[in-house]
Amino acid sequence: MKHLVLLVTGIILLSSSIACYPALILLDQIAVIVDSDVIMQSEVKARTKAIKTQISNSPNGTLPADDVLTAQVIERLVVESLQIQMADRRGIRVSDAELNEALQSISAQNGLNLTQFRQAIEQDGISYPEMRDQIRRELKMNRLQQGIMRNRIRISEQQIKNFLDTEVGGVITADEYRVAHILLPNPADANAKQIAAVKQQADAVRKRLDEGADFQSLAVERSAGKNALEGGDLGWRKPGQLPTMFSDVAQEMEIGEVRGPIKSGSGYHLIKLIQKRGAKAEGNVEQTRVRHVLVRPSEIRTNEEARELAESLQEEVVEGRAFDEIAKLHSDDPGSALSGGDLGWSRAGVFVPKFEEMMNTLDLNKVSPVFRTEHGYHFLEVTGRRVEDFSERFKQRQAENYLRNQMFDEELEAWLREIREEAFVEIRS
């Protein structure tokens, strides 16, 4: 009981000390109760101030009446609080490293480094620590929303097929090409002799390119195109956005390839395909089929013993014993041992770097030497290589993402209304 008495005495003493200062000003008050959370008056004031600053800095910004703005701010804080509570219950966290990365990105979007960004924020009268806290809250809410929407938004295969059959679907899923361009122009009202002279100039430029000259530099030097100072770079374009004479050619080109001179009414063109992306570019996936034997060091097998066992097993395979037999009897990889060590077809990036390096450099149907990774000692055999066309699957993913993004905002608004209607909210001011 002694500790309890002391605690009570402490409270009494504290109460007595407060009573000595009848003019004591209460610094903060509860503005809103939201389920198991509270929103303080200071939060409402700080957010209102930040929004006023944002509206005032907008070219066409018009501030509403204070009571209207305050009501809007409170409503937003209520909905945020509900989401933060839900995120906390689900264990959603945002680390300091993730927060710093987000702040770096925001700073860069504003053309500032992090120090300059902080100075700009503080010059606007906004607390940098409070802004960091708000960004952390927004990141948590975004993660929560993404998770909720993944479960709420369902897109059927039929919806995807119907979309791909539309003109919009064809445009959205079309490949994109990044093309650079050099234009040698014809003079105005050019005669045949002048056109021939321009053709000779274009041929001379092409010869320099074939000899190793830099396309970008030559574009700056010789091109009359409007993108000459950018090295002739036209940026990312879908076929329908490219000049007609380039469209069909670009779709046939390999990355780094140069075509031309190509004649048009304005002169002669040389084009280079810098990059391409989309179903054709990314849908063709190189795959490798490989099998392996793994020998792990353990409490009963030293590192040296594991290596020696792996080498002896590898020698048996090289001398003619069946690979799958050795794998079934001796491999410490339970996932593949029963299949004779077969790991199936895989694409780049699936295995640890050392394993992948050995796999990629090994001739087909040859047994590798023993090598070590973090998993133990391996030897492997590549049993097949192929290029699989996933272009249709790639297009389907593009279509699904497009449809999901279209539905996201509408579905999010509906969900936010639902959680707001179900919540206990008591506004005290």
Largest sheet at a glance?
4 strands, antiparallel
The class by helix and strand makeup works out as: alpha+beta
Q: How many helix segments?
A: 17
Give me the CATH fold name of the largest domain.
Triger factor/SurA peptide-binding fold
Query: From N to C, what is the helix and strand string?
Result: HEEHHHHHHHEHHEHEEHEHHHEHEEHE
Number of strands: 11
Gyration radius, in Å: 33 Å
CATH class of the largest domain: Mainly Alpha
Number of domains: 3
What would the average pLDDT be, to the nearest integer? 86
* Gross geometry: flat
N-to-C CA distance: 42 Å
> Could you give me the name of the CATH homologous superfamily of the largest domain?
Porin chaperone SurA, peptide-binding domain
Q: In CATH terms, what is the architecture of the largest domain?
A: Orthogonal Bundle
Trace the largest sheet across and list its strands.
Answer: 4-3-6-5
Beta percentage is 15-25%
Instruction: Name the helicity range.
Output: 40-55%
Low-confidence stretches: 1-25
